[in-house]
Amino acid sequence: MELKEDIRLMKGNEAMAEAAIQAGMDAYFGYPITPQSEVLEYLTREVPNRTGIALQAESEVAAINMVYGAAGAGARVWTSSSSPGWSLMQEGVSYIAAAELPCLLVNVNRGGPGLGTIQPSQGDYFQATKGGGHGDYHLLVLAPNSVQEMADFVFLGFELAEKYRTPVMMLSDGAIGQMMEKVTFHKREIVKSAKPWATTGKTEDRERNIITTLFIQPEKMEIVNIHLNAKYEEIKKNEVRYEEIETKDAEYLLVAYGLSARISHKVVILAREKGIKLGLLRPITLWPYPSDVLFKLADQVKGMMTVELNAGQMVEDVRLAVNGKVKVGHYGRMGGIIPSPEEVEENLEKFIKTL
Amino acid sequence: MENNEILTPQCIVDGDDNYDLVYEKTNVMTDTRLHYCPGCGHSTAHKILGEVIQELGIQKDVIGVAPVGCSVFAYEYLHIDWQEAAHGRATAAATGIKRCLPDKYVFTYQGDGDLAAIGTAETIHCINRGENIMIIFINNGVYGMTSGQMAPTSLEGMKTTTSPYGRNVHTMGYPLKVSELIAPLPGAFYVTRQTVHTPNAVRKAKKAIMNGFKYQKLGKGLSFIEIVSNCPSNWRMTPLQSNDFIDTDMLKYYPPGDIKVPSKEDLINL
What we know:
The complex is a heterodimer of chains A (355) and B (270).
Chain A: E1 6-11, H1 12-22, E2 27-30, H2 37-46, E3 53-56, H3 60-72, E4 77-81, H4 83-88, H5 90-98, E5 103-109, H6 125-129, E6 140-142, H7 147-164, E7 167-173, H8 174-178, E8 180-185, E9 210-211, H9 218-238, E10 242-245, E11 252-255, H10 258-273, E12 278-283, E13 285-287, H11 291-297, E14 303-308, H12 314-322, E15 327-332, H13 341-353
Parallel strand pairs in A: 2-3, 2-4, 4-5, 5-7, 6-7, 11-12, 11-14, 14-15
Antiparallel strand pairs in A: 1-8, 6-13, 10-12
Helix pairs in contact in A: 1-2, 1-7, 3-5, 10-13, 11-12
Chain B: H1 3-7, H2 41-56, E1 62-66, E2 81-84, H3 90-100, E3 105-111, H4 112-118, H5 120-128, E4 134-139, E5 142-143, E6 149-150, H6 169-172, H7 178-182, E7 188-195, H8 199-214, E8 222-228, H9 232-235, H10 239-253, E9 257-260
Parallel strand pairs in B: 1-2, 1-3, 3-4, 4-8, 7-8
Antiparallel strand pairs in B: 5-6, 7-9
Helix pairs in contact in B: 2-8, 4-5
């Protein structure tokens, strides 16, 4: 009997790996690091009997450069890591962005700085959205808040990467990567875009293809910069994604992504039970950021508060978005501590008193 | 002399049947003027690489990976598909390419700073995995592009801009013999050290590169072609002096010749 839907109970990391196989991945290059080692384990177990390549590299530095080579050769390729390993990849990420190589890059965020902790964190928000590597570039950043979205965003990530010929990042965290939830895999038709620019060997019917990030003359470098920025503007125009929860009549607004958004959803319920008209705006793309909707909501609400598992990073983007129209506060825990909805609600009430 | 005159030597024999064409620039090389200093071995290494690709008829199946260093622009000079990798990461990029395109010929072209300093980990692990690629390793004992700093392969006592009193091996480490270091690895199929400073040496180096391409079809591991080369500019020598220095000094420490060769059984399917 063929099931209409393929429903499984999986960890976020495993769901992501399964999704990549179903999305027709050609290759994955990775290096073990907690809390995302399940990805490499899952793929090295599954791939030999199914499709693609899964290779354990000698370091994250090597892994990201293998991604560079494979993406340049036209493969549907991805890697994943966690914060310290993701830092090691930044050189390669900058090159990949400069060379406009489509690929999927995942950071299952853990607490830092330094070796930090293996517990979940959102401390890499700045690194994900403001650069990370050197030079003028952006990653399109997707932030899942469930195991289901960790799977779904693999399909979406590959699609967007190939559509814009740009690296797409998924910023998850140790909790969503490790927790088990129901996940549904829908039957999909996998379409891979043509890559006439890929280095697959120079046939007689075309000029040679060169993947490079070296533009030594300033005039040529600036042309590349302008080209990249035009693409980023296009992405900003088309790809902003967010979810609004109870915002229609909201007098106060929480802004949170990923795991924090899961907690904040519960805070909305708790606050409304107490008669506080609270809403939640959940950015799904962290870059491009849903600034416009926040700017509009700033006319409606009396104050906004971000909930983040960090010292206050995304709060800067919310403040930029509302441009002083309303007060924007922040509540966060660090070090891998996950606040309870009650704790956040209590601090929301404290924040409301300051308005 | 104009550039186009340099590139079309046939013009002197046009219309004269008394001359035989004895030499022709390989059509795998582009017409782009080489940026290398006069007398530099890179140009010769590029030329024989192009000739081998042409002679094997594999132009449409070759992907090269250029390094960071003097040969960063290698992709300007050969009519093949290229990727330019980050500093030291050429072998990682080549791994990504070869794993996804196993039927293609993949090679890296790297200098000593790129391969033996910043890229040491990638180099050793690529070889240890026995990736079916070829590494062409140009060893001139100095950082050329950044104008003459000490390389991991700089000889003892060698004066560079960062070892101005000569390389002191007690404080700066010993010159690294990469070929000897990697030859024992099971993933290394063919390891040889060549030079391009005499006509005879050029012929031998060309043969080695040809082997490096051919062996990829066997799927038995990596071919490592070290070419001990010169750097007249940063050695502060004339091209001829630098060629002499290769004989008198470089090859004393880096003896030329095959270091690891396949057995007859290994080559039975070639």
